[in-house]
Amino acid sequence: MYTRHLIHELAAMACPDIFMGFAAGIRPLDRAHIPFPHRRIPLPSRLLFEIWERTGRPFADRILGGLEVFHAVNYTLPPLKKARGIITIHDLGFLRDPDWFSPKILKPFRRSILRHAQRAETIIAVSEATAADVSEQLGIDRERIRVIYEAADKSFHPIPRDLAAQRVKDALHIEGPYALFVGTVEARKNVTGLLAAFSKAKMPHTLVIAGGYGWRSGEILAFGARLGLAERLRFTGYIPDRTLFPFLYSAADLFVFPSWHEGFGLPVLEAMACGCPVITSGTSSLPEVGGEAALYVEPADVDGLTRKMEAVAGDADLRAVMAGKGLERSRLFSWRQCAEETLACYHRET
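The structure corresponding to this sequence follows.
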C-alpha cells in the first residue's frame, strides 16, 4: 500500500523528475496501476534477493539504464553502481522482540537489515519511534534518518451508521453494537490481552477481530476459546474486500488496538478517519498517530484496558467527542505530504 500511494502521488505532482519503477516476481504486474515506465525481472523476489546477497550483482541502477537515486521501499537496498540509495524502514519490531515473529521472516531480515541501512545515504522512517529504533538498534546516525509519516487512504471517511451497519450485516452477518480490532491475528498485536480484557468487560458488545491469521495465531484462537465468550466474539479471518473496512470502522462503537509495538499503526489512523473512537497502546509509534484524540493504555494492563473499553462503550457523549477529535487528527496526515517530503529526500532538501 505504501508503494502504491507513494508512486501515484509522485506521478500526480507537477515536477520535472523522471521516475522509473522496478519490480521482480513471477506474476505479471497490473500495468493499469503503475503510472510510469518500469522494468520487471521475471524471477521470484526471494531468488533475486539471494543473488544480490551472494554476488552483489546485477546493479539495479544499471538495469534501469542509469539513475541518480534508487528508493528501496521495503528494507532491501539492491547493489548500486552510481545511484544514491534511499531506504524506507517501516518497523524494527523483529529486532526489539524476536518472539513476535516467525523465524522464516526473522532470519533474512535480521541477517541483512544492518548492512542495507549502512549502505543507504538516507533512511526514511515512518515515525519518530521507528527512527529511534533505527538509531538505537542499528547504530545509525540520527542525521541520516528522515521521519515521513504514512496516511490513511481517501476511502476512509465517516459513513452514516445505518448504512454502515447494514453493509456489515450483509457482508459478515454481524449485528448489534460491537468493538472492533483490525490487524493480523499474531503475537505482536496483543490479541490475547484484548481478549482477556474484553472477557471481563461489562458491556453488551460483540468483539469483532478483523484480520488474517499470522504467527502463533493458533495459540490466540485457543486462548479465546478457553474464555468461553461464545456469541460475544467474532473472528472474521482475512477480508479481501478492502472497500468493506470503512463500513466496519464507521459502524463500530469503538476501535481497540492494544498492540505491543507498531512502526506506524495505520489502523488507528483509519479508524479515526472514519469517526470511530480509538483506544490503543501508549507505546512505540501509536501516540504519534493518535495524539490527543485517542485513549491510551499500557499493553500489559488488562484491567486498565477493560475499564477504558467499558467507559467508551457506555458513554455516547464521550464517543462523540472522541470521534470529532479523531477526525481532526486524521486530517493532519496525507499521502500528498508523504510524497512531497519523500521527493525532498531525493533532492537532498532535508
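Residues 161-330 form a domain with the Rossmann fold fold (CATH 3.40.50.2000).
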